[in-house]
Amino acid sequence: MDAQSKGMAALLFIITVMITGMMLSSWRIIIYSYLAAMGVILAISLASYIQKNKSFILFPVFITGLFYGLFILADAYGLGSETAGGSSTSYLFGLVPTTAVFLYGIASMILIVPLLYAINHRKQESSLDLAHYEEKKLSKTS
Predict the structure, then answer these.
(1) Phi and psi, residue 95, nearest 5°
(2) Is the confidence at residue 128, as pLDDT, over 60?
(3) Is the entire prediction scored with pTM above 0.70?
C-alpha cells in the first residue's frame, strides 16, 4: 500500500470517528477528529514534496498541533461554564477568554495557514520549474 492509500485509509477512519461523534452528539469527538482530518489532508496534498524532502512533514504536523492547542485552550477556558466563559470576570485583550482564543487565535490562523501553504507550494513549484528550465537549457546545448 502506497503512502497516498494509507492517507486515504486514515482519512476514512477519521471520518468514521466523526460520524460516531455525530451519532453520540459529542461535539468534542467531531471537532478534534476534524482537526486530525485536516492534518491528514495536508499531509496527502504535500505527499510529493514530503517524499523529496522529509522536513515538509513538519508543516501538517505543526499546523494540526497548533489548531489542537488553540481548541484545547478554548475548551479549557469554557469548561464548567454554561455560557462557555461568557460570564467571566477576567478579560483577554478586552474579550472573554474563550472569545479571544477564537477571534485572535483560531480565526487568524484560518487566514494565515492557507497563505503559508500557498507560499510554500509556490516556492516548491518555482524551484521545480527552474530545475526543468535548466535541464532543457543543458539538453539544447549538448
Answers:
(1) -125, 160
(2) no
(3) yes
